[in-house]
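Module 6 notes. Inverse folding takes a fixed backbone as the condition and produces residue identities as the prediction. Think of it as a translation problem where the source language is geometry and the target language is the twenty amino acids. Below is one complete input and output pair. Work through it position by position during the lab.
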């Protein structure tokens, strides 16, 4: 996973954040990962095939 989102990592996996805040941060990290993977596939020669 990308390390350019340290505030999200702290919120997603820290022990001080509330349950809702952790869930929202983890969802945001998943969305960022999906967007990055989608962008990577768009730039793969042969369209990823």
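Target side of the pair, the amino acids:
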């Amino acid at each position: 996973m990308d390390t350019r989102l340290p505030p999200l990592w702290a919120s997603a996996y820290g022990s001080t954040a509330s349950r809702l805040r952790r869930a929202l941060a983890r969802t945001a990290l998943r969305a960022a990962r999906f967007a990055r993977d989608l962008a990577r596939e768009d730039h793969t020669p042969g369209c990823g095939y």
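Reference fact for the lab report: The helical segments are 6-13, 19-42.
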